[in-house]
Write a structure and sequence with these properties.
The chain is an alpha+beta fold. 15% of the residues lie in helices and 31% in strands.
Amino acid sequence: DQFGHSMGPQGFGGGAGGFGGFGGFQGGGFSMEDIFEQFGDIFGGRYSNMGGFGSAAGSSRSRQQRQRRGTDLRIRVKLTLDEIANGVTKNLKIPTFVPCEHCKGTGAKDGTAFTTCPTCHGTGTVIEQHQSFFGIEQVNATCPTCEGTGKVISEQCQYCLGEGVVRKDEQVSFTIPAGVSDGMTLTVKGKGNAPRHGGVRGNLLVVIEEIKHPELIRDGQDVIYNLMLDLPTATLGGSVEVPTIGGRARLKIAPGTQPGKVLRMRGKGLPSTDYPSQRGDELINVMVYIPEKLSDDERQAFESMKNSPNVTPDEDQKKRIFSKLKHIFEQ
């Protein structure tokens, strides 16, 4: 159906009723191996040697040998908010498996002591038979003895005992971009373990662990600070010092600042990993401290203000304050 030809009296020969033109074959004169190679093109090479029509070395379409790959390493790196805000380069000693320099990672003495694999005779592949709905199929598989290399070690390297890798504390340097968050994983390619007997090294996976700031709370790209004002400053206004990422700053307090008010310091937050130039803000949640103990003079001062219209809120002021508090709790 796929190639638009039917099986006629002429069998597999060329012509209108045969397989003429099948996969580029014109006329007669092709073998069953050619047909099964066509099946291999259709099914991804699986049937290129089906039914015993292939050779031990496999056809030109046999799969290439897979390159060995070492395992990945995972480490946790603790970062302060200041390091997260600006990005940082870390230089760490990491225990890992590296290629043996004496045998060039092969495991063979001087990197040359090899003989032809007796199982696959140097081809790197063997024929395996499997039962399928087509019948007995034969497929090329990687040689289990030489792992597809076609050769085996005749004399081991005395330094790595034939493994091709040795344990070593390797100095690794990598840069962590600004704006990363807790739990994020970064990949440093080619800094993981080296595989036995040569190949590609695995990767180093760096898991970010954020160190909590003693005063600031992270909220995405923003940071939050809970500011406790004394009653005179909240009433009369003034300036206070607040912590920021990387230092401290002076913040102006307007007279009559109410509890629950949120002040915003723009650009004092954290950058985005996608857009480093765009920084979040620092949000200041204002709280007002109500004194729990008063001296006699202080008590008299408050008593004298008790009936003042400017000290006691009216109904409109109460509604505004309750509305702000309600909005805070809803968040």
